[in-house]
Specification:
Protein name: 420_t:CDS:1
Number of domains: 1
CATH class: Mainly Alpha
Shape: globular
Bound molecules: protoporphyrin IX containing FE
Number of helices: 15
């Protein structure tokens, strides 16, 4: 079956010329918008009538996502409450060194595995970097949101080396793979209910549901363990460190007498502690967040950009090759950031961002009734020659002068009231990764002729990217 992103890309070429076209899928009307000038209304905050993400005529309730979590929550009241808690626990971290304190040792650990995998006589190990990035991101998010380590990268390395594996490692690996399965096929959640019983679709839905239940079960185990730890601390008269709380602890303490940031004027139906399933819904959003492997592909095909990246790294780490990447160092990695944005422009991780209108509206010069699903085709806008000279070319320099970029012509994290809550952390993660990986290794594609292998469900993930990682002389 054709990948949804390839299909949208093809439709955009055929019908996207005027910046708007209509799709009808099993009686469901979808308006696809492919021009920067027309997406303004979806990207403004608070007053917008385009807050909901879906028409909710699919299977959100079957997957227990209809009124849980943030990303797909369709219940305005619960979404707002969960978004507030998520934002309060995650957004302030980006101005602290906490993400860097987690990232630096984690990248060093991954680098050591890569060196370990090098066979005698070879100049570097051959690895599938897409598999490593998935594992790295899950290990990172676990530490960031729960303060606890998983052993996902460790499991993978030990498996490759045929070394003994513990039950804990296997559990962590299964958790990571269930996230991947969800990301690779979650599109079926939006299939209109009416198609639920079609044999092919039914099989996919049942498979995804089974996978989700495993994933949910594992998250609930993590939540229960933390509740127990908190209860024991309180019972033994210990003090909860409410100043440096992770997302999981904040969610468990929300609306309890230990909540350090109690919400005033809260809807009475929300003025109670969250259930395990509600906490699980929010934690789920953190783990299904995106990552990026694709920069490596574009850097390998654009030696000029790679050379500039290495020059920037060599300059920034000149005084001390072993210094960690801190907020101050991140500030200096301007070209590294431009590479991340240019990769996202050409091949966005989220290539479609949807909004569902609650009121009649006028968009792109047309009047639309209420309850209409709109899709911002981000990949189409990010690659539209109206806004980008030679859009197919990888030119990170475009992002060195942000004032020259036309409003709304580039989107990596969406916008408005549903904008990505992990955007700052994601940029910290991606910049630190790119800088430290290229500081320590020459990264070469094993097959320069192979096309980029990605697949899209609601997000685009890299399926396979084989590279040789050759340890670099220290700068
Ligand atoms: C490369 C990494 C990432 C990319 C490209 C990305 C992109 C996006 C995009 C495009 C959206 C939709 C925004 C909209 O509808 O306007 C989104 C939503 C969201 N993202 Fe991210 N994201 C990334 C990483 C993260 C991380 C690390 C977290 C948290 C730890 C996170 C948490 C969320 C949440 C909670 C939402 C839902 C917001 C809502 O519906 O109110 N994301 N992300």
């Amino acid at each position: 079956m054709e990948d949804i992103d390839d299909w949208f890309h093809r439709l955009n070429k055929a019908y996207g010329r005027n910046g708007i076209y209509e799709l009808n899928i099993a009686g469901n009307r979808q308006i696809v918008v492919t021009r920067a000038e027309y997406v303004d209304k979806f990207l403004v905050t608070e007053t917008s009538s385009h807050v909901m993400r879906t028409a909710n005529n699919g299977l959100l309730s079957l997957f227990d996502l209809e009124n849980k979590g943030v990303g797909l929550n369709h219940d305005y009241k619960y979404w707002k409450f969960n978004r507030h808690l998520f934002s309060q626990a995650i957004m302030p971290l980006s101005s602290t060194e906490k993400p860097s304190d987690i990232l630096n040792p984690l990248i060093e650990e991954m680098s050591n595995y890569w060196v370990d995998l090098k066979r005698p006589g070879d100049d570097g190990a051959i690895i599938d970097i897409s598999i490593w990035m998935r594992r790295f991101t899950a290990d990172f998010i676990s530490l960031l949101t729960t303060g606890k380590r998983m052993a996902i990268m460790e499991h993978y390395c030990k498996k490759l080396k045929n070394e003994p594996i513990t039950k804990e490692m296997i559990d962590s690996e299964e958790f990571c793979e269930s996230i991947h399965t969800f990301m690779s096929d979650n599109q079926v959640i939006f299939v209109p209910k009416i198609l639920r019983s079609f044999p092919l679709i039914k099989h996919r839905i049942d498979y995804l549901l089974g996978n989700c239940n495993k994933f949910y079960g594992r998250l609930v185990d993590i939540i229960r363990k933390r509740r127990k730890e908190i209860d024991e601390t309180i019972k033994s008269g210990g003090k909860l460190d409410t100043k440096r709380m992770d997302l999981l602890t904040s969610l468990i303490l929300a609306n309890t007498k230990y909540d350090p940031h109690p919400l005033k004027h809260i809807d009475p139906s929300l003025a109670r502690p969250m259930t395990d399933d509600e906490v699980r819904g929010v934690m789920f959003d953190a783990f299904v967040a995106g990552t990026d492997t694709v920069s490596v592909y574009y850097l390998s095909h654009n030696p000029e950009a790679k050379k500039k990246l290495l020059e920037e790294i060599d300059t920034v780490f000149k005084d001390d090759p072993n210094k960690p990447v801190t907020l101050e160092v991140l500030e200096q990695l301007k070209y590294t950031e431009a590479i991340i944005k240019e990769t996202s422009r050409i091949r966005p991780t989220v290539s479609m961002v949807s909004r569902y209108s609650s009121k009649p509206d006028e968009i792109a010069g047309h009047k639309w009734p209420a309850n209409q699903l709109f899709i911002m085709y981000v990949r189409g806008i990010n690659n539209n020659p109206l806004y980008w000279k030679e859009p197919e070319k990888f030119i990170p320099e475009r992002f060195l002068h942000p004032e020259e970029i036309q409003k709304n012509s580039f989107s990596m994290f969406g916008g408005g009231s549903r904008m990505c809550l992990g955007r700052k952390i994601a940029i910290i993660e991606l910049k630190t990764l790119l800088a430290l990986v290229y500081k320590s290794f020459d990264v070469e594609l094993v097959d320069m002729q192979a096309p980029l292998k990605v697949e899209t469900s609601t997000i685009t993930v890299c399926k396979e990217l084989k590279v040789r990682v050759i340890p670099r002389e220290k700068v």
